Amino acid sequence: MTARTPVLGASDKLTFLLSLIPYLMDHDNVTVTEAAGHFGVPPERVRDAVRLIAVSGIPGETHQYLDGDLFDIHWDEFEDNDRIALTHLVAIDDSPRFSAREAAALIAGLQYLSSLPENADRDAVASLMAKLTRGASATPTQLAVSSPDSDAAMTVIQASGRDGVQVEFDYLNARGENEHRFVDPLRLESVDSDWYLRGWCHLRQAPRTFRLDRMSDLRATTEPVGSHDAGLVLSDTLFQASDEDLSVVIELPSSALALLADYAPDRATTPVGGDRVRTTLRVAHYHGLKRLVGGLAGLVTVVEPAEARQVVAEWAAAGAARYDEPTGRA
């Protein structure tokens, strides 16, 4: 018996046509064989679709198909060399495009993702960046995003997670104390430019969060992770409260509350006039307020306790004093 070529319905032909046109737009000049190999179809099906593209388009204001209302191809290349090159596009070019700034921002984000160990050498990321560049309304600004400083640490942690073994490292905590930790790695997360390891700390016998740039002498061990992590559920917030945390009362605009969601679990507030509210934070140490207040400069006021106010005031005064120091210039 002779095998029959399946008869395609109108919807199948249209689906293939709508897939083929973007492919041809992304590849300026391809052979029929290359296109057929990409879609996994016989070459003759590609040729039929190309001939259909050449009589497709959108009628103009007169509701008739005039010159410029249809797609067109390089016919000599197609008939003599079996190559496909679109020479005229209709309708598709009228679709909304990213501005140059929007495309540049997206490309910068993709560059950052491709620099991470788990996304290194990803052809899909490179292809998407190329499409954004071609599809923008203007040429995007050329940006270069540096690799995160924590690449080496993330590589060790990810390998340990795959192998199911603990990591050990020396850790400088928020109190300025060095401790040696053994941790079952569970998750890597980022907040702005900082990367964090979330895992089960064997010293504290509880889930803990560690900043990668505070680790030193990080290495994988041969000790397997505990059996707890099968039933361990990490919270949605990056920082978890503990019984050892300290309470601090602050005032800030209500619009800024969302920025402190990880530090104020219950989000209870008291209006104090205007748009400002008062709420209570949970911090591991008063020195941790320095980074928080510095990130919201001019918005946060530490109310109590007095020790917390003093820590932040002394830190701010020390920073301001540096501006009064002589620069050494004549």
Automatic annotation (TrEMBL):
Domain WCX, first and last residues per copy: 246-318
Any GO CC annotation of this UniProt entry: proteasome complex
Domain of life from the UniProt record: Bacteria
InterPro entries to which the protein is assigned, alphabetical: CBASS_pafABC_assoc_protein, PafC-like, PafC_HTH, WCX_dom, WYL_dom
Keywords for the protein's UniProt record, in alphabetical order: Proteasome
Pfam families: HTH_PafC, WCX, WYL
Record domain WYL: where: 154-219
Domain PafC HTH: 12-134
UniProt KW RNA-binding keyword: no
Name of the protein: Proteasome accessory factor C
Organism: Cryobacterium psychrotolerans
Organismal lineage: Bacteria, Bacillati, Actinomycetota, Actinomycetes, Micrococcales
